[in-house]
Amino acid sequence: MILKQHLLLTLYSFCGILLKVAVTKSKVKGSQGSFPITQNVTVAEGGTANLTCRVDHNDNTSLQWSNPAQQTLYFGDKKALRNNRIELVRFSWHELIISITDVTLSDEGQYTCSVFTMPVKTSKSFLTVLGVPEKPEIAGFMKPALEKDTITLTCNTSGSKPAADIRWFKNDKEIKGVKEVNASGKTFTVKSTLELKVDRKDDGVTITCRVDHESLSSAPQLATQVLKVHYAPIVKIIPPPELPQEGHYLTLVCDFNGNPTPEPVIWTKDGGELPDPDRMTVNGRELTIAFLNKTDNGTYRCEVSNSIGQDNAEYVLFVYDPSALADQTATDHAVIGGVVAVVVFITLCLIIVLGRYLARHKGTYLTNEAKGAEDAPDADTAIINAEGNQANADEKKEYFI
User: Fold this and answer.
1) Are 274 and 268 in contact (CB under 8 A)?
2) pTM, whole model, 2 decimals?
3) Is pLDDT at 16 greater than 50 in this prediction?
């Protein structure tokens, strides 16, 4: 009987311990589930920030959002701070979401979500506000540059947070600049300087200053500058492809480039004016000579200039006699025909000589190893006769062509 009572007492004690452990685990689980859950938020200046607070297990306990100054924004679904930019998005016993519109840099800071249990449980959410950089501006290019000059361009942008990045492009090719960052309150002013030595190829080139920043999610900020470069002209004369002949027309083109555009075009012959204005006409860049004759032979010069410099090119004209050209063409044909005939003759001679050589030296093969063995009366005599003929082995000859 005493043993039975002792066993019952032990059993009751064990059950009590199990019940206490179960209650303790339930309380711990409920305590962990009642902690609020928040997340940090990043938004660009002027955007909208949504602050979300969630609780997995809540026994009808109110949730509260407060700002970095510990001012209550919302207590449950009740608005506590008069601010038209702060609105309630969603409310339940397990969730409280509020929004802040038209966010400014002063809104940045640590916001707190509280659950009013015993004790009060809190969670922090840091709101980061990105300063949007202003549209950049390029300065330093006021007038056209001269070829081989070094120009200095600067690109500025302000209001970025964190500091923006500035990149330079020459048409589509990136080029390096020197960046300088200065703080101005909570934002930064960024300046980049570009030094560029220009030549005539840079005339009309587009220089682009591009501002990259994490707040510019859609597209970067751009500023462009088209370069204008002045340079002296370069001249060349383009003649027609055919040879000039008596009685024909001749057109010479004075091709040049320069900035500013050179004008006018001056044509001269042998250092003086054109001798026959009736036949020699100038139309813009072109000089046309009608009814060519031997008196037109000489050196023709095209000269142009602009405010930067001048250049010229020369063309030596020699007028050909059409009949002489025809005779020359016939002579050329005769020479070509003669060369072809000689080549054919030499080829035939080589073929004939080679054929005769092959006919006289066709391949032969002589052997006398078994000579005299056919008439031997027995095998031993045949072997002896054959061995005797080994001395004539050097008579074997063989030719291969």
Assistant:
1) yes
2) 0.66
3) no
